[in-house]
Amino acid sequence: MKLVLIIGMFFFVFSLNAQTNKIVGRIINESGQGLPSISVTIKGTQNIYITDSLGYFAINGISDSTTVIITGIGFDPLEYRVYPRNDEFRIKLKSASKQLDEVEIISSGYENIPKERAVGSFVKIENSTLNQQAGTNILDRLDGVTSGLIFNKTKQNGNPQNKTAITIRGLSTINAGLDPLIVLDGFIYEGNIDNINPNDIENVTVLKDAASTSIWGARAGNGVIIISTKAGRLNQKMQINIASNVIISTKPDLFYQPQMSSSDLINFEETLFNNGYFDDRINWEPYLSLTPAVEIFQNRKTGLVTPQDAAKQIDSLKNIDTRNEFKKHFLTNPIIQQYSIGINGGGQSNVYSAFVAFDKVVGETFN
Question: How far apart are CA 360 and CA 337, in angstroms?
Answer without folding.
Answer: 5
